[in-house]
Structure formats: structure tokens, C-alpha cells
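URGENT: need a sanity check before tomorrow's submission.

F., can you look over the Farnesoic acid O-methyl transferase domain-containing protein record below? I want to be sure the sequence and structure line up before it goes out.
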Amino acid sequence: MSCVDLETEDRLQYTFFPNRSGICQFRVRASNDAHIALSPSAAETTPMYEIFIGGWGNSKSVIRKNRTKPEVAEVPTPGILTDQDFRGFWVRWENGTISAGNEGEGSPFISFTDYERVPIEYVGFCTGWGARGSWVIEQREGGGPIAPAAYTQGAPYAANACWVASGNGQVPPRPFVGGEDSGETVYVCRSNFNGGLLPGKLVPSHGNGYVSWGGKEHPIYEYEVLCDFAGTWVATSGGNIPSGALAAGQSEDGEPLYVGRVVHDGALTVGKVQPSHGCLYIPYGGKELSFKDYEILVQ
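C-alpha cells as predicted:
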């Protein structure tokens, strides 16, 4: 058994490690929101479980299934994390029971038993909501970390869904083309905004990307660009999400968001598909515009 050091940003993107042992032990230094994912694949998928330690301002810990509310388990844990030193924890999964406890203690501080037996093969780690994390993880199986990537609904994990950090209008090598505006190529990007990770459009000549939220178009100067992706566009409507659709982010409530596009005012514009709203939203002309008929990005 060996230990792996991991640094996580304030991004809510998991780095996955293979682990079929039924237990994960780690130490983490973070001010709040140390998140652990238990998944059948190296991606955020369905089904899966998440354990949020020190969430909601380091006031409570929860277990969530399939990234949906309400939480299946919740306990108050004020001050359980600190960014001053490392705190040790364990997570176990056996016979449908998911549990987490403090290092050196045999009893869990939170647990949940599920009727569905999910085959856990990967464990993911991330931080968010204003926190960065330093981790020391006991590695029980060979292999290094698997880079964070987007969750794909209804299809296997897409290893070629690569998001490259950039900013200020810069375009990384081999970007995925999303559309066109006034003769200029527009690319698929995403960015953290108001507690969500939102798909949007990158317009290089503007020196920034754009996302839509709250009825408005918002410029973003730090973003990730979809690169090295072999995808295509499929016509759909409303909240109909075809198999293989690429989830590129999530709303502030944890709902998966997809990449869509539509022709508007002569421009082929990229935006976010929110299934529960039954539409595509695009950032355009300072506004957030909605469309019931659109194209969605699939593998």
C-alpha cells in the first residue's frame, strides 16, 4: 500500500482513483467542503454516491445519491475540517451501506444503506465552495489518478472529453468548434459561475467567453475549453436528452448541464441545456435567451 499526494482547486471537479477494496482512507487539509465520490467508473455518472464532509460552511456532512437532492443522510459536523492541519477520515462501502468516519474511530459519523447495490470501482476527490484541498490518500490499487472530466448521461465515460484551462480570449490547441458569429469561429467552453459550472461560448476576438445565468449574458475571463473531442450535434427539443449527450457542468443545485447550440440572429451560438427547464439557454446580446428546439452535443 502506498500514499498519493493530491492538490484540489476550488472547482468541484473530481480526480478519480481505482479502488475496489471497499474502503478508502485519507487525510485532508481544507477549510470546508471535502467531497468524495464513489462511482462504478472514472467519472460522475448514474448511479453514484457523494460524501460531502464539512459542507455548508463547515457546519454539516451529507451523503447524496446520483447528484440529486434531498440528501439521503445528513449530520451536523461543525468544525470537522480545518485549513491549518490535516484531518484523517475513512469511507467504506459494503453490502449497500455507505459510511464515513474519523481516523482512529471504528464507528461512522454518517451512514446510509441503499437497496440498490452499486458496484464501486473508483473513488474521486475534490473541493469547492471557496475551498482548496491538500490530500494524502492511501492507494490500495495500482495506477495513478484519472483526470477530472465531464459526466456523460446514458453512455460510458468519454476519455476524450478533455477540458483545458485558459483565459482572456486564448484558445488552447485542438479546440472543439461550437459555432460561428459574424464570420468568427466560436468554441465550446465552461466556467464556474454563481455556484455552478456552466457551459458557454468562447469568442476569442472579445478576449473572453460568455455564460448565461439569471436572465443575463455574463462575460467570463477564466474558463475551460473543450479540446480533442470527437463529438457531433444532434437535433432535439425540450428536456429530451439523447443517449451519449455530454454533460459539461452542473447548476448551482447540482443538476447536470449539457452543451447545446442554436441559430439566432444569424449566429450559431453555444449555450447550456438544462433538462428540468426543458430548453437551451444561450448568452447573446447581454441577455439569456431560451429555445425549445436546438442541437445538443453528443459523443
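My own read: Residues 162-298 form one domain. The chain has two domains: 2-139, 162-298. If you see anything odd, call me.
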